[in-house]
Amino acid sequence: MTYQVILPAAGRGKRMGAGKNKLLLELDGIPVLIHTLRVFERDAACNGIILAINSQDEPEFQLLFKRFNMTKKVCLVTGGTERQYSIYNALKTVKSDGMILVHDAARPFIQIEHIHRLVEKAEKTGAAIIGVPAKDTMKTVKDGLVAATVERSSLWAIQTPQAFRVSLLQDAYERAEKDQFLGTDDASLVERLGHPIAMVEGDYENIKLTTPEDLYIAEAILKKRQREIS
Ligand code: CTP
Ligand code: MG
Predict the structure, then answer these.
(1) Residue 70 contacts by C-beta under 8 Å, 6 or more apart in sequence?
(2) To which H or E segment does residue 169 belong?
(3) Which atom of ligand 1 sits closest to the CA of residue 12?
(4) Ligand 1: nearest atom to the Cα of 105
(5) CA–CA separation, 48 vs 45, rounded Å?
(6) CB neighbourhood size of 70 (10 A)
């Protein structure tokens, strides 16, 4: 089992409100970006990392690669104005037709064991995504009024990584561009092709750092994992 991974990292982190790319914020003295990169550096099955970045961030990112001694080849591409465009730019540089993963650089807690379960599934089906069953009761709301209560047992919160056969994801991105379709995840582009997507259960710790509260949760997850190791 081998794969390459695209890490979109070209966002501005507006909801985090840190005044800079949230991936530069530190957890236990190490930037979020480095935490995420280290997972894929550690994983022997990962044979390439394509990082989509905003050119404004490049000098600072390069300094971090040196400071934290990132040895696995990280290939930089220029991101776009939307996450989907950043990933498309990265995907265009992928030549071989193996397995490609897309993983938000803002999710530093992904576990290698889950990555491997996902890739194994995608090798069989062509497409697989990771997520967790919804915990809250979910309702649709319109004009300030509850419209309906949605059956919770069929609802899942979707995370990354998402894994695909390279040619399938490339077809999906080309079609989305042609149709001017903008999705909120990669699987939604593949769904439009009518291709089935397997669902793999991950864990609730694989959070995306989005708003300031997420930083407290992230510190707690990190501490818990450090306790488990020692
Ligand atoms: N991303 C990207 N290119 C963009 C927008 C987002 O590569 N044009 C990346 C982010 O860097 C992040 C991931 O996609 O790793 C998920 O996006 P999100 O959590 O929305 O991050 P931001 O866009 O940075 O945050 P915000 O939406 O609050 O500005
Ligand atoms: Mg965003």
Answers:
(1) 34, 37, 41, 64
(2) helix 166-179
(3) 24
(4) 15
(5) 9
(6) 18
Distance CA 22, CA 15 (A): 9
Give the whole-angstrom CA distance, residue 141 versus residue 116: 38
Please tell me the distance between residue 42's alpha carbon and the centre of ligand 1 in angstroms. Answer: 24
- Cβ contacts of 167 within 8 Å, gap of 6 or more: 97
- How far is the C-alpha of 18 from the C-alpha of 42, rounded, in Å? 29
50 lines ligand 1 (CB under 6 A): no
Q: Does domain 3-229 have CATH number 3.30.420.10?
A: no
pLDDT tens readout for residues 29-85: 999 999 999 999 999 999 999 999 999 999 999 999 999 999 877 999 999 999 999
**pLDDT tens string 138-188:** 999 999 999 999 999 999 999 999 999 999 999 999 999 999 999 999 999
For residue 111, which amino acid is it?
Answer: Q
Taking the centre of ligand 2 as the mean of its atom positions, its distance from the CA of residue 84, in whole angstroms, is 10
What residues are paired with 198 via a beta bridge?
128
